[in-house]
Write a structure and sequence with these properties.
Oligomer: single chain
Strand content: 15-25%
Distance between the termini: 30 Å
Strand order of the largest sheet: 5-4-17-16-18-19-20
Number of helices: 20
Radius of gyration: 24 Å
Shape: globular
Structural class: alpha/beta
Largest sheet: 7 strands, mixed
Helix content: 25-40%
Bound molecules: 5'-O-[(S)-butoxy(hydroxy)phosphoryl]adenosine
């Protein structure tokens, strides 16, 4: 297991209990809730669902016909009503719902009253354009309040949104529109990224050129002059024009608990993206309860989740979870290093952010840029920190703890997936004694297990790497893959069909205390001379070295050992790459984990190939290391990175 070592001021194996002051004020401080939920998960989830506003009560909590679940059957509610209307009666009506800052520094504040009005008006716009309950609407917007307004307006009338990340190409957009058969597209003329204009409208035009299901395109004017934007007569309509004419009164459609809320596409291990389908009552129950308990949301918090709304984190923890809790959500459009590398810290200081939820890949970038940037800012308002997206290495965890959290903020390392809808494995900040790089344990009401290939539970505390499974249905689980139920069964339920376990595809271990350690995708686990080695464990050892900024490790085919370990390494600024350093890194890993984990190849590179969501594309690294033609590179943030790596590998390798 990854141990803390060599981070000055911390002991190996050190654990981090919450402070008594934090616990005393926490939303959850009674450890008994774990037992209460485990004793009767359905009753517990029903209690959490009861915190929402239902226009008609459910008649049955859960129906489980493996692999299909329904939750809160017969119940009716509306997601937008719960996120907006419900807060208007009391003092929250004039509270900031969204505080926005664009990359160029423009700012806006929408109170709950404002946001409600905008959503009602846009719901009427959608209706006026012929959108009806059950129709699909594709949203392709920058990170601006209109993204949340569009989503909530769909939810209000019962249309199914499918948000496509603004960084995706025209081809990806076309594929998602085609699969979801959307009839309306909502986009903007552009958005800002590192001082450049991302021309969304051009991509949108290309995506619907020729045959398409899209009938109308609504365009939000974010950039300067609307006259420079090509608008297709009869098809394209300006958001602001439509809103001028729209009425502000709107009834929220009472939706069945199992009516679809959204489809969100996520990449599969092969080819075509998977359309994850989430429904209404169970999903909202899951995101509302987890937001409240895990981020310890309070009335006066200013909460910032840095994810784009194009990802599930943006759906569940920028829009639905926090707004259902009546929280103040901060939203930022641009890049963390624009105009300077302290933009995030400047924003935290400026807005008095109290809760920050971001990704390990961002934290490692901040580490690489150095501690001077955060040190320039007063971040004493922060009280809870979150991490999501991939396993966080102990070094990054400790850096986050010390340099961002001032050693006072609990860190919640939250494991979940697009498919799970809501956080599944996580600390509770007022209760859990955290261990750097452990996601702690399943959220109350979630039943998980670590099993072997046959599905038998592995004992706690074993060294063996196991497979994470979820053993009972949960309210916010995906219901199917849009238009492909067969694939849904195959991908998630066929591996442990006999046991009826959900298979997330992640490796895990549980230690003596019952804490879970997520070890990356199961397909990221290497088999070297018959030993299971987690790529993440080797990466963690590498980034633990003072010269290393980031590392990606893959298993490449090796004729004797089965697989050999190849490491792609980026160095901290000012460090030069030498063959001595490569040798030193190999020994360092061998020393940290054992000789068996010693990398065979170390390749220094200025950048790693990443998807736009920041995930390292190990599949491409494997292609490079094994000298194959590169597979699909369309989801890469910067395709030139792999091309130059490939060249370099064949020269040096
Ligand atoms: C995969 C899901 C959940 C929103 C963002 C990603 C990995 C996610 C953690 C974590 C270790 C994590 C898993 C998971 N992952 N969070 N805290 N620790 N691994 O959503 O794109 O659906 O990816 O991300 O491998 O299966 P996603």
């Amino acid at each position: 297991m990854a141990e803390i070592e060599k981070v000055e001021g911390y002991r190996a194996g050190q654990t981090f209990p919450p402070s008594p002051e934090f616990t005393a004020q926490a939303n959850v401080r009674d450890p008994h809730i774990y037992d209460e939920a485990a004793a009767n998960p359905e009753a517990w989830w029903a209690k959490r669902a009861g915190e929402l506003r239902w226009t008609q009560p459910w008649t049955k909590i859960c129906e489980w016909n493996p692999p299909h679940a329904k939750w809160f059957l017969g119940g009716r509610l509306n997601v937008a009503d719960n996120c907006l209307d419900r807060h208007l009666a009391g003092p929250r009506r004039n509270k900031a719902a969204i505080i926005f800052e664009g990359e160029p520094g423009d700012t806006r504040v929408l109170t709950y009253w404002d946001l409600h009005r905008e959503v009602c008006k846009f719901a009427n716009v959608l209706l006026s354009q012929g959108v009806r309950k059950g129709d699909r609407v594709t949203i392709y917007l920058p990170m601006i309040p209109e993204a949340a307004i569009a989503m909530l307006a769909c939810a209000r009338i019962g249309a199914v949104h499918t948000v496509v990340f603004g960084g995706f190409s025209a081809d990806s957009l076309r594929e998602r529109i085609g699969d979801s058969q959307s009839k309306l597209l909502i986009t903007a003329d552009g958005g800002w990224r590192r001082g450049n204009v991302v021309r969304l409208k051009d991509a949108a035009d290309a995506a619907i050129e020729g045959e398409t299901t899209i009938e109308k395109v609504i365009v939000y004017n974010r950039m300067e002059d609307p006259r420079h934007v090509h608008m297709e007569p009869g098809r394209d309509l300006w958001w602001h024009r439509l809103m001028e004419e729209a009425g502000a009164s709107s009834e929220a459609e009472p939706m069945d608990s199992e009516d679809p809320l959204y489809i969100l596409y996520t990449s599969g291990s092969t080819g075509k993206p998977k359309g994850i389908l989430h429904t209404t009552g169970g999903y909202l129950t899951g995101v509302t309860a987890t937001t409240k308990d895990i981020f310890d949301i309070k009335e006066e918090d200013v909460y910032w989740c840095t994810a784009d709304v194009g990802w599930v984190t943006g759906h569940s923890y920028v829009v639905y979870g926090p707004l259902a809790n009546g929280a103040t959500v901060f939203m930022y459009e641009g890049a963390p290093d624009w105009p300077q590398r302290d933009r995030f810290w400047a924003l935290i200081e400026k807005y008095g952010i109290t809760i920050l939820y971001t990704a390990p890949t961002a934290i490692r970038a901040f580490m690489k840029w150095g501690t001077d940037w955060p040190a320039k800012h007063d971040m004493s308002t922060l009280r809870v920190l979150g991490s999501v997206g991939e396993p966080i290495n102990p070094e990054a965890w400790l850096w986050y703890h010390r340099h961002i959290g001032g050693e006072r903020c609990p860190i919640v390392d939250t494991w979940w997936q697009t498919e799970t809808g809501a956080i599944m494995i996580t600390p509770l900040p007022g209760l859990s004694t955290t261990k750097p790089a452990s996601a702690s344990r399943p959220f109350p009401g979630i039943a998980a297990e670590v099993v072997d290939e046959q599905g038998s539970p592995l004992p706690q505390g074993t060294d063996q790497t196991g497979i994470l499974v979820i053993t009972r249905p949960w309210p916010s689980m995906l219901r199917t893959l849009w238009g492909d139920d067969e694939r849904y069964r195959k991908v998630y339920w066929s591996k442990f069909e006999a046991q009826g376990y959900y298979f997330p595809g992640d490796g895990a271990r549980r230690d003596e205390d019952g804490d879970y350690w997520l070890l990356g995708r199961v397909d990221d686990i290497m088999l070297v001379a018959g030993h299971n080695i987690s790529t993440m464990e080797v990466e963690s050892a590498l980034v633990d070295h003072p010269s290393v900024a980031e590392a990606a490790v893959i298993g490449r085919v090796h004729e004797i050992k089965g697989q050999a370990i190849a490491a792609f390494v980026t160095l901290k600024e000012g460090v030069t790459h030498t063959s001595e350093l490569a040798g030193e890194l190999k020994s360092h890993v061998a020393k940290k984990i054992g000789a068996i984990s010693r990398p065979d190849d170390i390749l220094f590179t200025a950048e790693l190939p990443k998807t736009r969501s920041g995930k390292i594309m190990r599949r491409l690294l494997r292609d490079i290391a094994e000298g194959r033609a590169l597979g699909d590179t369309t989801t890469l943030a910067d395709p030139s990175v792999v091309a130059s790596l490939k060249e370099k590998y064949s020269e040096e390798g």
